[in-house]
Task: inverse folding
């Protein structure tokens, strides 16, 4: 990283007025899986210091499942969903109580916010979550966000709090995202091997070509690895949020602009709209619509709406207003959008022009399958 790039990275963090901080399970718990009170206290001290400097802080914290393991007599992280949810239901209260006590030492109030993918997939719930978090910041609380593991399912869940943190950063239009784990930075290989170098700055995907980011955490108490953190950084930077990946031990340095960890620069292209990022990263397709080659070119290349004439097949069971994946004829997803028809209605419309449909079936059938304002290219 050049001196100029280094200065820009440090300046971006020092200017940040609203910051989302994500901390992983391995950074909060002992090797046995219990909450490490000293680590929680140290993190709270760092975050409280930034709050006193006028920075709004939102903490996305893992650790609920890990914290619930020992009270339930579990010696390793459970694999089945039911036991994970049982551990989370015990551990979440213990984790929040510890945070509340530590922030109270600084005169700050901790507020628990539990989210599910459904809260991000449905526009009304998404807006409600946004309003709640913003209001908590306005009244001086420290929101502590976690996935609601007690009700999440394997099919519908974030899968890791790294992605949740990026989506929260986007939802709040944060200035910065700091990802804390047990690894101090992204490296160009195995950090334990001689000659491996820290990647100080990432400006785009090209900077990571040939870099293996698939390694998991060291201690096995979390669910994510480096790959989820890089994906989280990609989501955040696409929304214009600068991101730092480093260890929990470097939290103070990262938040005050010191050159630690790996800095992911915000994308320089036009910032996607809230709706585009929401569709791309906070929703999952409830079904799919297969497009002919002409429709793929129109949707992807010309930012056009998807019309009935370009649809060749429908898969899954969905209703009007659901997010659906738009596939090419090889089965690859090219876009995602909010559909205007139920799955059962579309086969009768396929291959027809909207003019013909309006004449034969009524003016309400002049609608697009997916309007371009409700569509994002993947």
Result:
């Amino acid at each position: 990283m050049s001196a100029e790039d280094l200065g820009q990275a440090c300046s971006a963090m020092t200017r940040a007025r609203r910051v989302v901080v994500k901390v992983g399970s391995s950074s909060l718990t002992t090797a046995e899986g219990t909450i490490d009170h000293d680590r929680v206290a140290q993190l709270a001290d760092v975050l409280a210091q930034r709050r006193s400097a006028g920075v709004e802080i939102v903490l996305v914290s893992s650790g609920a499942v890990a914290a619930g393991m020992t009270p339930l007599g579990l010696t390793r992280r459970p694999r089945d969903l039911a036991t994970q949810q049982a551990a989370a239901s015990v551990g979440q209260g213990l984790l929040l109580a510890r945070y509340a006590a530590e922030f109270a030492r600084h005169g700050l109030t901790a507020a628990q916010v539990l989210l599910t993918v459904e809260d991000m997939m449905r526009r009304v719930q998404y807006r409600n979550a946004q309003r709640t978090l913003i209001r908590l910041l306005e009244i001086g609380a420290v929101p502590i966000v976690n996935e609601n593991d007690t009700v999440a399912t394997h099919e519908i869940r974030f899968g890791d709090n790294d992605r949740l943190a990026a989506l929260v950063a986007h939802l709040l239009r944060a200035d910065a995202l700091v990802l804390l784990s047990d690894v101090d930075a992204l490296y160009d290989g195995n950090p334990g091997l001689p000659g491996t170098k820290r990647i100080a700055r990432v400006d785009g995907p090209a900077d990571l070509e040939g870099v293996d980011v698939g390694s998991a955490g060291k201690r096995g108490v979390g669910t994510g690895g480096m790959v989820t953190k890089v994906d989280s950084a990609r989501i955040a930077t696409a929304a214009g949020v600068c991101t730092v990946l480093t260890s929990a031990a470097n939290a103070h340095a990262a938040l005050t602009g010191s050159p630690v960890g790996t800095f992911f620069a915000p994308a320089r292209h036009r910032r996607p709209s809230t709706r585009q990022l929401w569709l791309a990263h906070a929703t999952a397709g409830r079904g799919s619509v297969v497009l002919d080659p002409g429709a793929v070119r129109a949707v992807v290349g010309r930012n056009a709406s998807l019309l009935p004439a370009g649809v060749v097949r429908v898969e899954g069971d969905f209703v009007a207003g659901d997010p659906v994946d738009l596939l090419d004829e090889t089965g690859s997803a090219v876009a995602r959008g909010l559909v205007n028809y139920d799955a059962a209605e579309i086969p009768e419309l396929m291959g027809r022009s909207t003019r013909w449909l309006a004449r034969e079936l009524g003016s309400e059938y002049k609608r697009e399958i997916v309007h371009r304002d409700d569509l994002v290219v993947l």
